[in-house]
Amino acid sequence: MDMPLKTSFLSENMTNMDKRARITPDVITSLAEDEIFVFGSNLQGQHMGGAARTALQWGAVMGQGVGLQGKTYAIPTMFGSVREIKPYVDEFISFAKSKPELRFLVTEIGCGIAGFRKKDIAPLFMAVVQDNLKNVCLSRDFLNLIDQYEGIG
After folding, report:
1. Residue 25 falls within a domain, yes or no?
2. pLDDT, tens digit, for every residue of 12-35?
């Protein structure tokens, strides 16, 4: 069962095709010319498993744990706390704002091998929803969790 998505991000007036265009696919097997695969990394850039390993096929660089590399963007998640990951997510969001011609497919960073819970990582991307960044796609789960988080208080 699909939960409703934020209307400020995915307008009720959009077609289903438009809505899908704003959601990162569950499985990514190819990238369009303007698409960037955003994945969770470790600071050392040892892309050995999960989405980081997948990112190698699109230009992720061994030894580079942060930022743009080929058709990928690494956000380190394999260390510390959610609070320590936040500056890297903020840096990514600033980068995405500066590159409106690119479409960023954000995977559920930190929620696989790194072991964080989606409900803890998703709110780090709240600015994507608040600023209505049309070039940043998030998973349906992240969007629904952000909606729940914003609804509290």
Report:
1. no
2. 444 444 545 689 999 999 999 999
